[in-house]
Amino acid sequence: MSDAQELENELASGEGAQNPNPAQPYAKSQDPDSSVPSPEDSALTQDFDNFAIEIAKLKETLARSQADYKNLMVRTERERVEMGDYVTEKLVTKLLPSVDNLERLLSGTPENERASVLYQGVQSTFSGIVRVLESLSVASFESAGSPLNPDFHEAVAQVPGTEGIVISELEKGYKLRDKVIRHAKVTVGNGSP
Q: Residue ranges per domain, the chain?
């Protein structure tokens, strides 16, 4: 039997429960009849209370620090996306006139010349640029037939047609995610037939 088990057995049976030093009285925890706490017990209770308060303060500080860190990570990610979108917007807006020119070239090429290698090369280049723009979350939006919306359209002329409705699109509009980076230049109906 181990020493610890022997000690437990002695305490359980009452052996060894006598005060080894009769000159010193039992402390409160050993003497159930004592109703007055000893100064040592009061000091221990005060220390325990102080430690509990300190632990509560440290837990609160830790929780605040964790929340601040989480907020920092969210803000940093948002700023990173915004910075990426800003750079993409600046680059794409400078590239869009060339995209417009390629599109005009393709739409203005006579039907009998569309089988040429040159036409096929330009069409392939234009398709590649459109795929790159889409991978950057840039897309054009259609305007013809929709109501004039100053958030998306820039009216450059009025023509006969239904009032307030976009009749034709002179230059495509583009969005980066949900933000319009170039308004569509459109003609709008003036209400005359």
A: 58-136, 138-193
What is the rounded end-to-end Cα distance, in angstroms, of the chain? Answer: 110
Give the residue, 5 or 29, on which the prediction is more confident: 5
Confidence of residue 35 (pLDDT cuts 50, 70, 90): low
- Specify burial of residue 104 (Cβ count, 10 A radius: 0-12, 13-18, 19+): exposed
Across residues 71-80, what is the average pLDDT? 96
Closest CA to 91 of 28, 176, 163: 176
Overall size of the chain counted in residues: 193
Average pLDDT rounded to a whole number, residues 146-166 = 93
Would you identify the CATH topology of the domain 58-136?
Answer: Hemagglutinin Ectodomain; Chain B (3.90.20)
Q: Residue 173: pLDDT above 50?
A: yes
What class, spelled out in words, does domain 138-193 have in CATH? mainly beta
- One-letter amino acid at 113 equals E
* Contact between residue 133 and residue 100 where contact means Cβ atoms under 8 Å apart: no
Q: Which amino acid is at 179?
A: K
